[in-house]
Write the structure tokens for this entry.
Amino acid sequence: MHIDPLEKKWGYVAVGIAAFFVFIILIDSFIHGIDAPSNVETIDSARLHLSKEFAEDKLGVHVDENGKIIVRMVAGRYGFFPKHISIPTETKIKFRWVSMDVLHGVHMPMTNMSTMIVPGYVSEVTTVFPKPGEYPMLCNEYCGIGHDHMWSHVNVEVKETWSVPEVAKVEKNHES
Ligand code: CUA
């Protein structure tokens, strides 16, 4: 079969581009810690306020009896609750989100913290923030007229000076 040399050249270019994209995906997955969400855990979105885990007084930053930091937040039109959280650098932090109404997304620019929050499911992301600073936590799924105003503040403090916020208290692990 005759293949024109120019066509062959472009064939290599096309395969090269595809290989480059696969390479980027592998770098993101293994070096930047960007993975597909995989937590399949259901919850009744209409009864969050009555749930053991996502009642209003349970939201925010908590330290469990093993010293692990868990952040529980509720997304709803139009905000993430609580509106402000403070967490330490260089520490594993497990975020657990639920939506009280529609589909939302949560994203912290310049970090790998990003996931969809699907009503009826608990979204979970465990990550580490290497750099201190004030980070916005934005909604990145169009959820209605107030979508642009849906965001919270995250204060990432240097590990050594971070102290457990007053609202957080040591608690027993929930069986969920
Ligand atoms: Cu919530 Cu957009």
Q: What stands out?
A: DSSP finds one helix and ten strands in the chain.
